[in-house]
């Protein structure tokens, strides 16, 4: 495990930690990852006519074209532009070496044993949020399916430092990789969820933190979207339709525009020209809805789903819930003293994998370094 952790900590920042000067100009590079490809077709429709890898690639190319047309100053990198196999680590390397400011992986979901399951979901790196519920088992199954592609790679145990996609213990260190980008990843995921809300794939399954390996080594804000279910007849009809795929691409593009505008303004580039989303009513800016008491605490979860404060996930602790748009942040052990919060964190960090210290001020939650 120690070798896994050491390699993981190194892998997160080999390329663009010092790219500050370029980033001062705003969001200039986005990496879009069409999941699967080549010898890894991903999920396949029951009639064997539709392959996830091809749907992912088609949508990714459409998003790329929309961004290039509307934002010529933005460089768009595709991890693959044909039906070829790219390793999961290779996808992250492409994004890192290209100094991407944002990474998005596009996928299609499938649960053949439950054909009624439908809708889209957005995921960022983290611990699955409902460990003692059926949904946790479902999320872990999705993660194992998406992660299991590593076993198609040569010498995968060396490349991924003995990571085993079927072993939950392998997920313990995942959050360490992306904590520095967690806030932006959450905002981007929320932008996507809002942009797709009410679109051609009707049902939103929300925003989740889950241990997807493709997000592990990316050193920038990153999200993975499951755009629909191959195993659901209605979703499949949309995915097979050129109009449907074009609509999904437009929704993802709209989310990108919202994120880019916020990103550019956050670094003082308020003069940046960003086109308005085509469905601006569906892609509104994030606003604070709940004021939390000022102080310091431990953020243990962020999700678009509302959980009761006596949920078993919180292990008896009563969280302060800070709502920002449709995103809920759950914070325990809130104190006016930063030393007290640090003491609680040192005792509880092993019990809440991926948790981190935060400061709550004026209803805003900011990670502490």
Global shape: globular
Number of strands: 11
Outline the biggest β-sheet: 6 strands, mixed
Q: What's the total helix number?
A: 11
Which assembly state applies to the chains in this document? single chain
Mean pLDDT over all positions: 78
Q: How far from one another are the termini?
A: 24 Å
Instruction: Please give the order of strands in the largest beta sheet.
Output: 2-1-3-6-4-5
Order of helical and strand elements: HHEHEHEEHHHHEEHHEEEHEE
Low-confidence stretches: 1-22, 129-140, 170-178, 280-291
SS-based class: alpha/beta
Helix content: 25-40%
Instruction: Report the portion of residues in β strands.
Output: 15-25%
Radius of gyration computed on alpha carbons? 20 Å
Description:
With about 375 residues, the chain is of the alpha/beta class. About 35% of the residues lie in helices and about 20% in strands. The protein is built from eleven helices and eleven strands. It has helices at about 1-10, 20-25, 50-70, 90-95, 135-145, 155-160, 175-180, 180-195, 235-240, 240-265, 340-350, and strands spanning about 30-35, 75-80, 100-110, 120-125, 205-210, 220-230, 295-305, 320-325, 325-335, 355-360, 365. The strands form two sheets. Strands 2-1-3-6-4-5 form a six-stranded mixed beta sheet, with helices on both faces. Strands 8-9-7-10-11 form a five-stranded antiparallel beta sheet, with helices on both faces. Strand 10 (about 355-360) and strand 11 (about 365) form a beta hairpin. Helix 3 packs across helix 10, helix 8 (about 180-195) runs antiparallel to helix 10 and helix 9 packs across helix 10. The radius of gyration is 20 Å and the shape is globular. Residues about 1-20, about 130-140, about 170-180 and about 280-290 have low confidence and may be disordered.
